[in-house]
Amino acid sequence: MSVRFVLAPDGTVTPDFSGKLPGRGAWVTARRDALEAAIKRQAFSRSFKAPTTTPASLIDLVEAGLAKGALSALGLARRTGDAVTGFEKARAALKDGKASVWISARDGAADGKRKMSGAAKDAAQIMLFDEHELSAALGRDHVIHAAIMKGAAAKRFLQAARRLEGFRSSKGADE
Questions:
Q1: Which residue spans within 34-173 are E strands per DSSP?
Q2: Coil, helix or strand for 27?
Q3: Are 53 and 11 in contact (CB under 8 A)?
């Protein structure tokens, strides 16, 4: 999985999460260490065959954009009726085999996560967001647990979440 970058008219390297911005694109693996290496080696100038300016906040912009994409996919799943929230509803969907993804807040209680994992069977587990991020994406207060039903919404969210997970997991890989 990669992130596309384009060159803005002023020569600034800009992430293109939609893949639709005009101009020549440069692709970098969606990992923090790969992006750090590309910046350090000045790979963008070579790729675009032009002088470039890399913002100091580019790594943070990419992480925030990947998180926004995953949370948007989660919100879309809620709007299409493919996501359920709350411990009991999510656990029931997992137990019945209807859900293929379960989400728990990073700051949720370990006991609740343990109970959910017992019901999860082969469902993918995502713990990338805190309670406030999940609540905002799902339009509810105090969301700690959620599940997404099998189908296109689950695949879309899981793909976006795995990109973010890969980016965050490579943090400090060289340290």
A1: 83-85, 99-104, 124-126, 145-149
A2: strand
A3: yes
SS (H, E, C) 47-69: HHCCCCECCCCHHHHHHHHHHHH
Question: What is the band of 19 on the pLDDT scale with cuts at 50, 70, 90?
Answer: confident
Distances from the Cα of 31 to the Cαs of 1, 28, 36, 93, 145, in angstroms? 9, 8, 9, 32, 27
CA 134 to chain centre: 12
- Structure confidence at residue 23 (pLDDT): 87
pLDDT digits (tens, 9 = 90+) for 87-132: 999 999 999 999 999 999 999 888 888 888 887 778 999 999 999 9
Residue 165 structure tokens: 């997970």
As a whole number, mean pLDDT of residues 160-167 equals 93
- Whether domain 2-56 has CATH 3.30.1230.10: yes
Question: Domain residues of the chain, as ranges?
Answer: 2-56, 64-169
Domain 2-56 matches domain 64-169 at the CATH topology level = no
64-169 adopts what CATH topology? 60s Ribosomal Protein L30; Chain: A; (3.30.1330)
pLDDT of residue 65: 96
